[in-house]
Structures are given as structure tokens and as C-alpha cells.
Sequence to fold (1180 residues):
Amino acid sequence: MNSYAQKRGFLATLWDYLTTVDHKKIAILYLVAGGFFFVLGGIEALLIRVQLAVPNNDFMSADMFNQVMTMHGTTMIFLAAMPLLFALMNAVLPLQIGARDVAFPFINALGFWLFLFGGIFLNLSWFLGGAPDAGWTSYASLSLASEGKRIDFYTLGLQISGFGTLMAGINFIVTIINMRTTGMTYMRMPMFTWTTFVACSLILFAFPPLTISIFFLIFDRLFGAQFFNVDMGGNTIIWEHLFWIFGHPEVYILVLPAFGIFSEVISTFSRKRLFGYASMVFATVLIGFLGFMVWAHHMFTTGLGPIANAIFAVATMAIAVPTGIKIFNWLLTMWGGSIKLTTPMLYAVAFIPSFVIGGVTGIMNAASVADYQYHDTYFVVGHFHYVILGGVVFAVLAGLHFYWPKMFGTMLNETLGKITFWLFLIGFHLTFFVQHFLGLMGMPRRTFTFLEGQGLETGNYISSIGSVLMAVASVILVINIIITSVKNKKVGNDPWGDGRTLEWSISSPPPYYNFKQLPLVRSIDAYWHEKMEGRKEMPPAEPLGDIHMPNPSFIPFMISFGLFIAAFGAMYRPDYSWGLPVLIGGLVITFGSMLVRSLKDDLGTYIKKEELDDDKGVKA
Amino acid sequence: MKRFTRWRLSLLLVIMAFILSGCGEPYLSSLRPAGEVAKKQFHLMLLSTAIMVLVILVVTTLFVIVLIRFRRKDDRIPEQVEGSHKLEVIWTVIPIILILILALPTVKATLALGNMSGMEDEDAVVVNVRASLYWWEFEYPNEGIVTSQELVVPTDEKIFFNLTASDVKHSFWVPALGGTLDTNTDNVNTFWLQIDSDAAEEAGNLFYGKCAELCGPSHALMDSKVRAVSRDEYDRWIKGMKAAKEPQKPETALAKKGEEIFNEKGCISCHAVTSANSTIEAARIGPNLTDFGERAYVVGILQNNKEELKKWLKNPESVKPANKMTGTYEELTEEELDALAEYLLSLKVTE
Amino acid sequence: MQIQEKMTFETWPAVPEKETLEGRNKFLGFWLFLGGETVLFATLFATYLALKDKVPGPDHPLAQDLYSMPLVFVMTMLLLTSSLTSVYAIYHMKNFNFKKMRFWFIITVLLGLGFLGCEIYEFNHYVHDYNHTFSSSAFGSAFYTLVGFHGAHVIFGLCWITALVVRNWRRGLSLYNAPKFYVASLYWHFIDVVWVFIFSVVYLMGMVG
Fold:
């Protein structure tokens, strides 16, 4: 086991990551893969803004634009935002609750590999006849009319990665319920843990409708079903309902963990405990609950009738209340605090006004009658980018800078970090603020071009300039990461100096068993509490003993790989005779791997007490 | 205090109306409402924006104070405040009140716009809108006529709409007149619009419509037009349309040649040049061209003159990618294009 | 308590499936998974109800024309009984009686196979005698997807229980495999509950009209 710490060759490292079930390594995998897709989606965004910089532009064909626009949305939501949040959850959450690992290390790995293979499958469409082109919502009539295999890449790819998300969600819920250390009561859990808990519960209930609606589309397109074929009795509105029953909670799945990250950052760098912790928890749960009641506000113009529209309008507005509670709680956390504007804190601070703008335009959208004018225009594009960028991406960037030392043991350069922040912030507002007005002035969204002389030129040009600033910011971030990694200057347990929660009480990065002895939690902000009492370490909750750890496994990779193969078979089955055998072969790999997993005993290994004593680099 | 709040709110409304109304073109912008529906929506926009700006101001003020006053100056440890029930109640109750202020007019307006009474009247102006890949058909069931691309309606009257789509989902949106409503493939959606004559005049009697639901490559170019005219002019147009039961006889030799080409090359199999709505919808494959010469635009986006028309006929793909006309006829020579354009531009019903 | 420890009747705990942390995790995680599955089936039910009897023409069979009580009754009885036998199996597991548990699980599997046979017969009947297929109408797609999803769950459940029984044929019970048996039987109950809903929503409501 000590060989773990030794330097090893590239192949051995690769094999280590392919088979790892350690949440900290899976976090790194999520980070790398999510970061890659984030860059990909960012490039697609830039292409969109280049095309729309001037009227009647012919930089891209209309067909190409629809592919790029669809892939931008799909990639950013499913393959960038969620995995990046999972990266942070994996990296921090078990540490925050004082656990040695997640509840299901195997399933944790499986979740990642499913996501990755789904994402790769989706993006292979670029090389195999074109990418999906019906928007990330893929409304049924258009997605059925789309020719070639484009939409099939969307459905099959998202299905595979969707399974992964569902598993990751269940895993975190069980981890939070069952794996908390002694004294870590629910109402002492860090806010990020709470928001993750609620977000994962949303995943559990929101992803199955997506799974089913995607199955319908797969069946319709590839297996001759008639769910959305109006001539055969089908109904396309079903897709809209199911998609948004998933789609609206998805927004909260993304933004709740973001709220959690900001809560941690704001509290840490204000040196104050979170103001109104109990009401924050309550607001989080309430948002999660209300999130399921409002999906039809995405369908105000579908023709559900005035009564339904009125009900969903009022229900939607209600979400403003818990969200408002959160905003004021954050402000009051800072009030009277000792605020240090580090890079993560800058993001957190900038998040507040940005997200408020996104939130209030959301309320404007909720006013159903007015929404008839906003629906499917650039107003909506502006609104949800304020929420997703101003909320989620800011949170990921804040979390990345904040937890980088905990994940890698090094600090990202603060100067470069601040330059990134300012460029990103200015670029963000420049790009998206003006889009609200473009929408109101009559520009529908998802248009590959706009005509001259309709008053839309200036706004679009400004928007395009802003996107370039964000791109530059991202490049500087990458440079920062490279420089930091090359310098490789290690830091201690609590590099920010103001750490409040358990993760800062152990080394950076933590040993693979996290805690030599599980810590005893005696208060909210447990580590801060001990620091204030004059202690440097957490009191242990158990005597030093053997530690049970799970075995690494290659099976998650194989299960996911089987589905990846099967997806190709399903897709080409109607056209080629080899399709069916490949489909079956892929499923055999998947279910065979599951069978092996089920039949082969996996009892894990024990790290002996003596080994722990030898490990001098590690302190509990 | 109460008066002060109200005063502040109304001042905000005035300022915003001033700023917003400067935005966009009168024929396209939802910020320049030209009818009752758009005005209702605009007022709701103003109200919601006012409330929201208020919220933003409060948050930003607090935010700025916090950032100025509470920066770290020394190594002191601030007091660890747990919370404050009083404050929490305040910022729960105030948003609820604000939301109620917005919710009530929202519900009222939603129900008002959903009220379709009067649609069944015999003399009601009813239009069946049918959206197809990248063009719009407007059928007047009470008059028994069909036109395309350019809707002609009277001002200062309620106009009732039935909306459907024939291939994929589209959405019918004329921002200056009112918000969008989807044209579904599954069912018929209904709504109404009303156009003020003054506003119509300001917009040159022609409003621009857009497709607001992604429908394919040329989604961006799937524009419609609404010609809003006085009741008299509308009646004249209806009369002219109704009279066009037979194809019009072209007058010039060139136009005659154009008609021959129109019939021989198969244009006629998709495009009707008579106005009656007697053929079934599925057979109305392309836009009806009965009053083509009087329309302001070709295919919704090009100025309707000979040059632009020829450009379209010569290579439709270059104008509207993935349209359904490309490749359905042999390439036309320059002379044929001339004749065809001459013929099409001669199709008029009110002269 | 160590997971590999050799157990006896005396040392066997009262709640063996929740004795270890792994067992507790599995227990909770599986319940959550079933929560997700419930939403999944709810979605299928909603779609079925929306598309019920939605056919392109008058020559397509409707729900009333298709379903027949006797067959569905037999299927329901088979599945309900199999649920009961899996309860017996778990009862014996808790009493550390491996052989009896094994026996009742085998009975469960056999009953499940009987159910599956009936379902295959039923589908075959609809396809060949009524021309009611997966592609013939939206109603057909919704019907076969809902009932077929359930059928696929039955197949998976059967394979799972069989694999567990075969794997542990000679090994007897341990704290390592007790949660596995327990969770598999939980899954089987869930399948049974879903069937009760299918029976009421699809068949009973379909026959009433």
C-alpha cells in the first residue's frame, strides 16, 4: 500500500486513474473532463458570437450554426456545468462531513465513466455526419424531422451520461445521510453539503422523466414507435412537458450547489458564520421543492390555456421568496465581517448583483402575459445566462480557486486570478446585459443571422465583444493553472488561513484515507470552533485503528464502455446489418461486467494501524 | 412614507417608459407597442421592471455599503452572529408583498388575453395561421380566401387567430402587436390582437413578424408581415381577393410568357394564383401568390422588386437555406427569370 | 463486526442487512433508487394515459377491444404470489436458514418465469390477432413501452435473484451477501407494486373504458 505514494510511470498512473474509486481522484477526473467540455462549449459560444457580430454574416452556414448552437447548450449544461460541480462535490463533500470516502466508491467511478462516454459519444457526432441541430431542448416535432443521425447522437449520448448523473446523485445522498462523522448533525453540516444534498435529491426525481422522454425519442427515431408522430395519434406536447419537468429542476440542480459554494466562500472570507444558517437550509429545501411545481412556465406560449398559465405564473413568482432570503443572508453574513477580497471572494461578491439581475428577470419572465413577449427571444437568452454564468460558472470558478489547494496542494496565483476575474466579469455583463434589450426589440433566439436595418446591429456587436473578453479570461485561467502546476509549491492544511470546516483541518491534498482518525464535531463550522478554542487539530472521535478501504476496479469503465458500443449499434441498426450484433454485443459487455461485479466478492482492504503510524507525512 | 414609495415607483415607471420606448423600431419592437395586447404586455413589463429595479437598488446599496465598510483592516475576529429573526421576517414578507403586487395584474391580464369571446360572431375578423417550413399562410375562413406571407387586417378591431403548423412547431410573433403563441402540429391555438391606427401609421402600416421557435436552418429568416390598414381599405382588399377566383389575365407580352413558364415549369402545382380556400390544406404546398404584386416583401425578407425577386427565383438556397423550393424546378434562364418576375409582379387584386 | 466473519445462528444479528455500514448504505441507496424508479414509472403511466386509445384510424384496436380479464388475473396472481414467497425467503434469511431461503427464492423465480411466459403470450396475441404493435399507433407505443419496461424489470430481477442464489449456493449466508439478498427482494416487491398499478390503470381502467 505504501507504493501508493511512490513515483510511478505514466502507464501505471493511467491505470490508476482508470480503476480508481477514490473520490479525490474521481474529482480530478471530473475536473479535467468537465474543463475540457467547458472549453469546447466556450469555443462554440465564440463561434456563435462571431457569426452574430454583424448582420447577414456568412461566417457559418445556417445549418452549421444550428449544430454549434445546439452543442453549445447541451455541452455546457450536461457536460461542463454538472461535471464541474460534481468535481467540487467529490473533492470536498466527504471531507466536509468527516468521511473517509463516499458511500458507494464503485458507483462513484461508474457515474464518472458513464458521463465521460456519453459526452464523447455526443461529440463524435461532429465527425460522423453532423452534430445535433434541434436545440438543447430538442423539441419533438423538429427533432423527428431532423435528418441523418444527428439527433440520435443527442439522445443516446445524453442517455448514457444521464445514467451517470443519476448514480452520482444517489451516491451523494446516501453519503450525506450515512457517512457523517460523530457530532456532524444535519444542522451542523456545511452549507455546501446541504445544497448538494438537496440538488442530488432533485437529480433523483428530475432525471427519470428525462430518461423516459429520451427513450421515447430514441424509440420514435430508431425503433419505429409513434410517441410524437401526430399522424399516428402521437403528441409532441408530451415531450415539452417531460423535458421541462426535468429541465426546470435542472436549473436548481446546477444553481443550488453554486449557492453552497458561495456560502462557504463568503463565510470564510468574512470570518463570520453564515448569517441565518437555519433559514438558509430552509430556503434551500423550499427552492428544491418549488422547483418541481413550475415547469410549465417554459411553456406559457405552448397554448396550455390562461388558467394553467396564471397558476404557473404565480407559483413561479413564489420562488423569489426563498431566493431573496438567501441573497440577504449572504449580505448580512458580510455585514460586520472582516472581508478579504481574495479571488474566490471576488467571484462570490460579484455573484450577488449579477445573480440578482438574473433572478429578477426571471420574475419578469414569470409574469406570463409579459413572457409572451420574452419567450424564445434574446431576453430569455440574457436571463438564463445571468443565472447560469452569474450563478453557476462564477461558483465553479470561485470553487476552483478556493479548493484548488485542497485538491492539488498548491495555490493558484492570486494576481492572475484577479485579472481573470475582472476580464470575465466585464465580458460577462457586456455580452449578456444588452441581450435583454435585443430580445425586447424583436430578436428571436436561435437565429443564425439577423437582418440589416432592424435596429439590432449595435447590441449584437457589443455582445460579441464581451464574449471575446470572457475567452481571454479563460485563457489566462489556463495559463494560471499551468504556471501553478509547474511551480508546484506545496501549501499546508489551511492555506487561506480562515478555513472553517473540516476539510481545512487535514493536509492538502489529504491522504487517500482522508482522516487518520475520524474527527469529533462539536459545533457548526467545526474546525473554526476548535481554532477559536486554541486547538490546531480536530479532536478524534475514535481510537486509532485499522482503516477499511475499497479496492480499485476496472469494471465501471467496462460497464460504460459497453453502453458506448451499444449506442453505436442502436444508432446504425436501421441502416446496417452489423448494427444489431453490435448493439447486443455492447449490452453483453455492460451486463456481463455487472454480473462479474455481482459475483466477485469485493471485500476491500485494510490499512493496518501500524502503517498509519509509519506514515509521517499525514496528520489527522 | 407610503406616499413617498408610491411617488418613487411612479417616477421610476416614467423614467423607464422613457428609456425603453427609445428602443427598437416601431414596426418590430415590443417596446413600441402598437395595439391593446402589446400595450397590456408592455405595462406589465414596466411594472415588473420597476419592482425589480427597486430590488436591485436595495441589494446594490447594501452591497456597496458592505464592501466599503467591512473590508479587512486588522486581524480582529468579528462577532459570530447567528441570525436575526426580525430581519429574516422582514425580508420574507417584503418580497411576498412585491410579488403580490405583480401577481394580481399578471393573473388579470392573463385571463383578459385568454378571453376569446366575439370570435364566433359572423362579422368577426378571423384568420387561420398555418406555419410551414419557412413561410406563413393566412386563411380567412369567413371570407373563404387565402393569402400568404403578408397578413392584411383592419386597424382598431379585434382580430382573432387560429394557429397551427403543418410540419414542425413554429411560433407566430409580431412583437409590436403582441407576444408570441406557438403553432403546434398537434392542436389549434387561439389568440387575438388589435392594432391602433395611429401606431400603424407611425410604423408605415407594415409590422414585422418573426418565427419564435427554432424550426430549422432558415428559422432566422422565417419572417411574416402584417399590413394594418383602415377598414375601408381592408374591405377593398377583401373584395379584390374574393373576385380573384380565376387566374388573372396578364396584360403585357412578357407577363404572358411568364404565365406560361409558371404553368409549364410546375410552379402552379405548389403555388396557387387564385384566392379561394377550396383546396385542402395539405395540397397548399407553397405560398399563395394571388396578390403577390402588392406585397412589400418577397419570401418575407427581400424587398419586392424585380431584381430581388429574380435573385430568389434563380437560387432560392442562397436566400433561405434549406427551403422547400430549392431543386424542385430546372434552372431558369435570364429571359425566363425576367418573364416570370414580370408575371408575378403583375398579380394584383386591388387595382 | 467484520464483514467476512463466519456467522452462526447465535451470532447472526436481528437485522443482518443493516449490520454493516456497507449494508446500511446499500439499503438506503436502493430505496432511493426505487424512488427514482417510481418517478420513471409515473412518467410512463402519465404518457400512457395521455396516449391511451390514440390511434390513427377506426380499424385500430382500442384498449377495450384488447384486454382480457382471465389472463391478466393469472398474471397478477403469479406475481403477487411470487412477492409473498420472496417475503418467506427474507424471513428465513433473518433466521439464518439458508436452505429455506434458497428454496423460496427458487419458487419466486419460477413464479416470475410463469408471469413472463404469460406476458410473452399476451404480447404475441395482440400483435398477431389484433395487429396492435409497437409501431401501429401512439397507443401501441405507449402500451408496449409501459408494460414492456415492467417486463424488462421482471427479467432483470429474475436474472439477479438467480445469479445471487447460484453464486451463494454452497456458501451460505454472511453479512456480506445478506444485504444483497435483501435488496434483490426489495426490487422484486417494487416490481410487484408497479404491476398492481399496471393492473389497475392499464387493464382495469382499459376494460371499463
Notes: The two ends of chain C are 57 Å apart (CA to CA). Residues 18 and 25 of chain C are 8 Å apart (CA to CA).
